[in-house]
Amino acid sequence: MDTAYSPEDLAFRDEVRDFFQEAYTPELRQRMRSSHKEGAEEWQRKLNDKGWVAPNWPVEFGGTGWTATQKYIYETERSLAGIPNVIPFGLVMVANVIMAYGTDEQKEYFLPRILKSEDWWCQGYSEPGSGSDLASLKTKAERDGDDFIINGAKIWTTYAQYADWIFCLVRTDNSGKKQEGITFILIDMKSEGIKVNPIISIDNHHSLNEVEFSNVRVPAKNVVGEIGKGWTVAKALLAHERTGIAGVADVKRAVRVIKEVAAKEENGGQRLVDDPGFQQRLADIEVELMALEFTELRTLAAQAAGGFPGPESSLLKIKGTELQQATQELLMEIAAYYQGVLPTDLEPDALGHEFTTEARMSYFYGRAATIYGGSNEVQKNIIAKYVLGLE
Amino acid sequence: MNFDFTEEQQMVRDSIARFVQDDYDWDTRKAIVASEKGLSADNWKLFAELGWLSIPFAEEHGGFGGNIVDLSVVMEELGKGLVVEPYFPTVVLFGGLIARAGNDAQQAEWLPRVIGGDVLGGFAYVERQSRFALHDCLTTATPSGDGFVLNGEKVVVFNGEQADHLVVLARTSGEQSDRTGLSLFIVEASAAGIDKMNYPMMDGQRVANVTFKDVALPADALLGEEGNALAVVEALVDEAIIALASEAVGIMGVLNTKTLEYAKTREQFGVAIGSYQALQHRMVDTMMAYEQCKSLLFKALCEYKQEPAMAAETIHALKVLIDRNAKHVFGEAIQIHGGMGMTDELDIGHYAKRLMMINTTFGDANFHRNRFVETAFAA
């Protein structure tokens, strides 16, 4: 029971801090805002040059070999510096699946490309008819010689408009239980028969899409894991996704931002940050956050000891997303009348406050956090079943 | 003891509900929001013809002579349709201030125009630094000759883009946060020295930041007594909060109905999601959240109708409860609609955005909780 930093840890923290300071330039920060794709790719390549783009990968594939403490330090420094997380679809999600279940050929081809951000990945899980009930998916893959022919549709596909590849759950067999006959397959987005339809979300932004497949021909060698055993693969991946969604470090940063901006707002001479009602609500968030940080550390430590995260990642997902939404709500309140301002060509300052556009967008997009990655209701089902043993 | 609406109120309710159902469906509303002016002039004319713009005004000016309950009925029904035509800024705020503070000549000049749908108005009261403190005012009106000269900036003026006239709150004496020395002026939005920066809000409103640079105002632009405007504004704000709370109750009711319908029809794991007890209990909670808001609104209406000052404490409580419960209701509406609730295409998110704007207008829950503590714990 010890979380004190060793001298090596402190030196590591300084190294991380210095690197972020130097590498995450104001120009890059601006590019992240104006063009998310180019900005993200540029940053991920810089990280890869440093050897830090995939801290959680095993060393043999290009990971850092960091201790759990070092990973925690890295994540904390990243969020303190206001640097967004890497795009998870390639580096976190599909990479973990390929490492665990992929063929040597798949590992050799895809993993280096993922490290170098040469491919943009997206995730084809949900379908128009199957959201929380993921296993009810209907997108069909029929064998045709060395290929599969794919027909169906995926929905809520984040950044499909940029994607070179999509990893998909498809149905290869209809005869058994719905969890059986599902296959995990990698599809080149340039294949003939793929159509991407944009979905504008309530933050007035285009990140979501529907992806339609009509007679899309995919080589059978793109199957990851066994044919018909995709459900096992999918579950392992979802656990990884959940752990990432908690975003503890980012909530910490949000708390810091809240304190900064609330110090500048006054109601008739009283600073909002001095308002007892406001203070109490922020304190409630901080108390819960302190606990969640250590819940995450406990998970990290357990993961460091071996393998995939278990059902406790559901706890992280539920609590983390609740806290995210609580901080997003406070930031909206601080924005007061300005929370409703939509982006225009006008200078943000001319309208009043600079932080308010981000506040509005993250508040509304943030509603999705309790829905995606398996809704929080489904997470509670998982905890009930696998942790509490309730059937 | 009765909480029934009169036959007349029921008729007004039905008439607006029919309009929303027949002529203001979701696609129509979307097209209006996206149109150049962000409102339909034809609708505004129709509202005048149907008498909706006359509801709160005295009969001697051609008004309906309605009370707070009549206004509440109108706002609740307009809320259900997310009607973006500027009823609140023009009728409740602009018209309301003239009805309260105007002299006979001003009332005779302006109220028939509001009622006839011939004026689009707004109330310029928020400043960059003011948040919810109405008396935090840097805009000045300095006596000059027979009239005044107006200087300063107002922000997020509701209907500011389309309004042809504004009531402006300005300081005629004193320091930034003095409670005295504030005055109201009726100002033509196109007057020399006025610069407007227009922008859209997430709830479909068009607003403006308005700067005044040496704007010359005639003596009769002064609305009410010079230097004593704060009491008038605070009284108007009480009425406006009840109006907004009514709108919010209308919206929350719609959200609950739509969510319930969705839960009964959306199937996952082979059954309607509404068959899950975990979701059932949550929809029971949102139903209770709605009913509690309605009850507190009724309390405010009863008190206000008897004597506006009686409702002071309840109005703070109402703002707190609406804020909290509205977020609860729309949060669950989005969550239970799942991914669909996240789309701009569906109306759910738009109801949520209007509720958020209602929450922040004239002070959020935190602000009014503090005022409630001051009022209720003072005794």
Outline the structure in words.
- The complex is a heterodimer of chains A (about 400) and B (about 375).
- With about 400 residues, chain A is of the alpha+beta class.
- Chain A folds into three domains: about 5-100, Orthogonal Bundle (Butyryl-Coa Dehydrogenase, subunit A, domain 1), CATH 1.10.540; about 120-235, Butyryl-CoA Dehydrogenase, subunit A, domain 2, CATH 2.40.110; about 245-385, Butyryl-CoA Dehydrogenase, subunit A, domain 3.
- Helices cover about 50% and strands about 15% of the residues of chain A.
- A four-stranded mixed β-sheet of chain A has the order 1-4-5-8. In chain A, strands 2-3-7-6 form a four-stranded antiparallel β-sheet, with no helix packed on it. A two-stranded antiparallel ribbon of chain A has the order 9-10.
- In chain A, a hairpin with a 5-residue loop joins strand 6 (about 195-200) and strand 7.
- In chain A, helix 5 packs antiparallel against helix 7 (about 230-245), helix 8 (about 250-260) packs parallel to helix 10 and helix 10 (about 310-335) runs antiparallel to helix 12 (about 355-365).
- The longest helix of chain A is centred in the C-terminal third of the chain and has 30 residues, at about 275-305.
- Chain A starts with 6 loop residues before the first helix and ends with a helix.
- Chain B is of the alpha+beta class.
- Chain B has three domains: about 5-120, Acyl-CoA dehydrogenase/oxidase, N-terminal domain (Butyryl-Coa Dehydrogenase, subunit A, domain 1, Orthogonal Bundle), CATH 1.10.540; about 120-225, Butyryl-CoA Dehydrogenase, subunit A, domain 2 (Beta Barrel); about 230-375, Butyryl-CoA Dehydrogenase, subunit A, domain 3.
- Chain B is about 50% helix and about 15% strand.
- Chain B has helices spanning about 5-25, 25-35, 40-50, 70-80, 85-100, 105-115, 230-265, 275-305, 310-335, 350-360, 365-375; strands at about 120-125, 140-145, 145-160, 165-170, 180-190, 195-200, 205-215, 220-225, 265-270, 270.
- In chain B, strands 1-4-5-8 form a four-stranded mixed β-sheet. A four-stranded antiparallel β-sheet of chain B has the order 2-3-7-6, with no helix packed on it.
- In chain B, a hairpin with a 5-residue loop joins strand 6 and strand 7 (about 205-215).
- Chain B is globular, with a radius of gyration of 21 Å.
- Chain B starts with 6 loop residues before the first helix and ends with a helix.
- The relative contact order of chain B is 0.10.
- The mean pLDDT of chain B is about 95.
- Classes of the chains: A alpha+beta (about 400), B alpha+beta (about 375).
- At the A-B interface, strand 9, helix 9, helix 10, helix 12 and helix 13 of A face strand 6, helix 9, helix 10 and helix 11 of B.
